[in-house]
C-alpha cells in the first residue's frame, strides 16, 4: 500500500510531534470534542467542505472556501495532511479528494478510523493551539484532475471503460449507468480490524470484479462521497487510469442521461 496515499496508525503515531504533519478530524464537532480525537488533530467537519447548491458542479466547496478552511485550521500548502473519521474513512477520503483537487500535494488517508486508532493509541479532548495561515489554493488543471463531467462520461460509455457503482444494491437496481457493475465501497474494509484488507487480498477482490489496473475505470455513486474512498484505495494500489465522476448519478439524472434498472444476473 502506497504510504504517500494511505498511512497506518503506526506511521502516524511515530510522527505526532512533527510540526509539518497536520492531522484533520472530519467528524462533527460534538464527536471531536465529546468523544475525543487523535492528539494534535484539528476539526474540519464534513459538512464544512460540501456544497450541494450547484448540482452541475457536484458537491465541491470551491477553491477559495476550501482554502479558508485550511487557513483557519493553521495548515500550510507544504504540510503533510492525514485525514480520518470514524466511518471506515469514507468521509475523510472525501476530504483527501477535495484537497487533491485544490492542489494540496501531500494529503493522506489514515488506514482505519478513530475507533481503530483508539484500540492501540491514546486520544485526547484537548484542542491544539492553532495559528491561522493564509492558504493559497492551486487547483488542478483540466488535464491534471481525475474529475470528469457529464460529457466525458458520455464519451467513456462509448469506450471499453469499466463503470463502477459503489452504492447499495437497492440504489443500483433503482437506476444505474448503462453497463455499470456494482462494487460496494465497504468491501475493501476488514470489519473486525476496521482497517483496509491486505493489498494482495484487495487486488484479488478487485480482479474478481474485473476492476484491474489495465482498464479505464470510471467511478460514480450518488453525490461522490462513497467513490472518494474507492478512488483513494485504487490510487494507493497503483491504479493510474481512474476517473472520478464528481456529479455522479445526481448530475446524470438531471441531464436525463440513459439508465438501466432492475437486478443484474451474477
UniProtKB/TrEMBL annotation:
Q: Which Gene3D superfamilies match?
A: Rhodanese-like domain (3.40.250.10)
Native source organism of the sequence: Natrinema halophilum
Q: Which InterPro entries match?
A: Rhodanese-like_dom, Rhodanese-like_dom_sf, Thiosulfate_sulfurtransferase
The protein, known as: Sulfurtransferase
On the tree of life, the source organism's domain of life is Archaea
Q: Which keywords accompany this UniProt record? A: Repeat
- UniProt KW Heme keyword: no
- Domain Rhodanese, residue spans: 17-126, 157-261
Extract the signal peptide range: none
**Annotated region described as Disordered, given as residue ranges:** 122-144
Amino acid at each position: 500500500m502506497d504510504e504517500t496515499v494511505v498511512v497506518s496508525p503506526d506511521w502516524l503515531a511515530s510522527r505526532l510531534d512533527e510540526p509539518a504533519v497536520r492531522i484533520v478530524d472530519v467528524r462533527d464537532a460534538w464527536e471531536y470534542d465529546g468523544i475525543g480525537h487523535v492528539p494534535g488533530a484539528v476539526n474540519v467537519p464534513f459538512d464544512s467542505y460540501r456544497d450541494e447548491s450547484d448540482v452541475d458542479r457536484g458537491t465541491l466547496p470551491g477553491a477559495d472556501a476550501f482554502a479558508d478552511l485550511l487557513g483557519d485550521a493553521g495548515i500550510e500548502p507544504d504540510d503533510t495532511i492525514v485525514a480520518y473519521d470514524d466511518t471506515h474513512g469514507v468521509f475523510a477520503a472525501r476530504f483527501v479528494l477535495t484537497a487533491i483537487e485544490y492542489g494540496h500535494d501531500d494529503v493522506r488517508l489514515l488506514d482505519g478510523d478513530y475507533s481503530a486508532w483508539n484500540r492501540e493509541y491514546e486520544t485526547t479532548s484537548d484542542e491544539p493551539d492553532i495559528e491561522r495561515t493564509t492558504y493559497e489554493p492551486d487547483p488542478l488543471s483540466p488535464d491534471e484532475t481525475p474529475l470528469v463531467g457529464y460529457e466525458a462520461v458520455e464519451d467513456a460509455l462509448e469506450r471499453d471503460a469499466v463503470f463502477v457503482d459503489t452504492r447499495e444494491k437497492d440504489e443500483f437496481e433503482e437506476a444505474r449507468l448503462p453497463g455499470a457493475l456494482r462494487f460496494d465501497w465497504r468491501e475493501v474494509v476488514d470489519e473486525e480490524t476496521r482497517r483496509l484488507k491486505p493489498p494482495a487480498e484487495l487486488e484479488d477482490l478487485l480482479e474478481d470484479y474485473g476492476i484491474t489496473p489495465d482498464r479505464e475505470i470510471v467511478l460514480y455513486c450518488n453525490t461522490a462521497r462513497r467513490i472518494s474512498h474507492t478512488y483513494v484505495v485504487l490510487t494507493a494500489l497503483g491504479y493510474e487510469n481512474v476517473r472520478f465522476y464528481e456529479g455522479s448519478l445526481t448530475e446524470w439524472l438531471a441531464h436525463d442521461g440513459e439508465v438501466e434498472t432492475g437486478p443484474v444476473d451474477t
